[in-house]
Amino acid sequence: MDKAAALARLADADIRHTLAWERLLLLGDAATVAAAQDWREAVRHLEHRAREVGETAEPVSDLYQQANTSRDRFYDAARRGLGVSGGSVAQSDRLQQRLASPEAHQPASSDS
């Protein structure tokens, strides 16, 4: 995906995010909102990196890991707040393994 298309998709996602954020503030408990704020900040760091805003010395892989870990914490808090049982739905370790694998860095082949 080229950079202009990716940035346009980020702008669209920001609109959807704002609508979801308002619902979360209305319905989420304090722990869920706090976890969501952490996730939101981690994603913002990734977005700034994509937009080349500011300077960050952190590798992109670390930024992804922070976002993924924050998302796991959000889902954990949200599930607790909603009384959902059934164990962890954490994905950050699995996603980190995928990012680290050589196949993750290969362009998709176009088998027509």
Provide keyphrases for this structure.
single chain, 112 residues, mainly alpha
Topology:
Blueprint: H1 3-27, H2 30-51, H3 60-82, H4 92-100
Helix pairs in contact: 1-2, 2-3, 3-4
Distance between the termini: 19 Å
Indicate the overall shape. globular
Chain-averaged pLDDT: 84
Number of helices: 4
Number of strands: 0
Main sheet summary:
none
| SS-based class | mainly alpha
Helix content: over 70%
Uncertain stretches of 5 or more adjacent residues = 108-112
User: Compute the gyration radius: what is it?
Assistant: 16 Å
* Assembly level: single chain
The H-and-E topology, N to C, reads as HHHH
Structure explained in plain terms:
By secondary structure, the protein is an all-alpha fold. It has four helices and no strands. Helix 1 packs antiparallel against helix 2, helix 2 packs antiparallel against helix 3 and helix 3 packs antiparallel against helix 4. 9% of the residues are buried. The C terminus is likely disordered.
